[in-house]
Amino acid sequence: MSEAQVGAGSAVRSAGGTAAENNEAISFTILEHLGVLRASASGWARELNYISWCDRPARFDIRDWTPDHKKSSRGITLTDYEMNKICEWVSRRNSAAASTQDESR
């Protein structure tokens, strides 16, 4: 990923209606690109990033992005606490699944 893609960016999006109707600029800075969950033939990719939106504290962010990071889909943001809870739950689930497999042997 290039410096321009990971650096500061801005997008024109709105909560309801088109960007042309609201003409609101939403600024963001991708502080850390953590990975691509999946990519489509159109070039859009679902990514996990650590992003600061509108100069607010950074959060984990999952959404689809164009290759140049100028457009994105709606997504979900998670605080550090929320992401840690999800990781804890997934880890607990994986541990339980592993012990169930061990018992069946």
**Architecture per CATH nomenclature, i.e. the level-2 architecture:** Roll
Weakly predicted, low-confidence segments: 1-8, 10-21
Rg, Cα atoms, Å: 17 Å
Q: SSE order, as H and E?
A: HEHEEEEH
How many structural domains in the coordinates?
1
- Overall mean confidence score, pLDDT: 83
For this structure, the CATH topology is Transcriptional Co-activator pc4, Chain A
Give the overall form. elongated
Strand content: 35-45%
Q: Supply the number of helical segments.
A: 3
The class by helix and strand makeup works out as alpha+beta
What strand line-up does the widest sheet have?
Answer: 1-2-3-4-5
Task: Determine the fraction of residues in helical runs and give it as a percent range.
Answer: 25-40%
Give the termini distance in whole angstroms: 45 Å
What is the name of the CATH class?
Mainly Beta
Main sheet attributes: strand count, strand direction, barrel closure: 5 strands, antiparallel
Extended strand count: 5
